[in-house]
Amino acid sequence: MSIPAFGLGTFRLQGQVVIDSVSTGLELGYRVIDTAQIYENEAEVGQAITASGIAREELFITSKIWVANFARDRLIDSLKESLKKLQTDYLDLTLIHWPSPDDQVPVEEFMGALLEAKRLGLTRQIGVSNFTVDLMQQATAAIGAENIATNQIELHPYLQNRKVVEFAQSQGIQITSYMTLAYGEVLKDPLIQQIADRLQATPAQVTLAWAMQLGHAVIPSSTKRANLQSNLQACTLTLSDADMALIAGLDRGQRLTSPKGIAPQWD
């Protein structure tokens, strides 16, 4: 099994806003929805999915276990709570959202519990998020690289995270890129705009196509119907090797997400 290349993110969207975004996305043809326990929107996402009437087997639903739920006796119960909110019997992918702060819960313990959740049929695939090379090494030592479907990380033209990407790929672990548009920062980049103009595409389409062409999955979010529709078209856009090389040159190690007390020592 692999991770679908294109999905809909729901970070920072709550209440009616997330219901509308997911409902519109599903109507437009999105079938991959990414949420997390800490987003506090799983119930609304579940509501929108159920109201859509789309068959469960057509969807790919991802959620992430929050750090407070890592202990072996808590992780599976918290996942069952997420399933209840999302109104589904299983997730397609369940991720460890961030590493355990100060290693309060050992990697071996929460990865073991997550693998147990997979054995119980609560999730089809499992993975990690915001893991460094060292943390990925610990996770693969604990449960085997073959059981880790993806590492979901901040990745955009300004932060290409090559060290983590290379290690993950060497282990057969797919990368999922979040914040691929860098909160809209890269959309203003003159180079991205120039490529977009030449290809008669939008800067967002170019950036999303770039990440997918590198083999990464993307999960952009939007509250606007026009953007949701436009972003989908990134799936049919192909960049030349020359354009890919130009975008590779934009990397400047600009990290936008590093929550205090939770973020690991980045590579």
Automatic annotation (TrEMBL):
PROSITE patterns found in the cross-reference section: ALDOKETO_REDUCTASE_2
Swiss-Prot/TrEMBL GO biological process terms: methylglyoxal catabolic process
Enzyme Commission code(s) on record: 1.1.1.346
Amino acids binding substrate: 97
Site feature: Lowers pKa of active site Tyr: 64
Keywords of this entry: NADP, Oxidoreductase
Active site: 39
Residues of the NADP-dependent oxidoreductase domain: 7-250
GO terms for MF: methylglyoxal reductase (NADPH) (acetol producing) activity
Catalytic activity: hydroxyacetone + NADP(+) = methylglyoxal + NADPH + H(+)
Enzyme class: oxidoreductase
Keyword set includes NADP: yes
Family under the similarity heading: Belongs to the aldo/keto reductase family.
Record protein name field: 2,5-didehydrogluconate reductase DkgB
Taxonomic source organism: Pseudomonas lini
Gene: dkgB
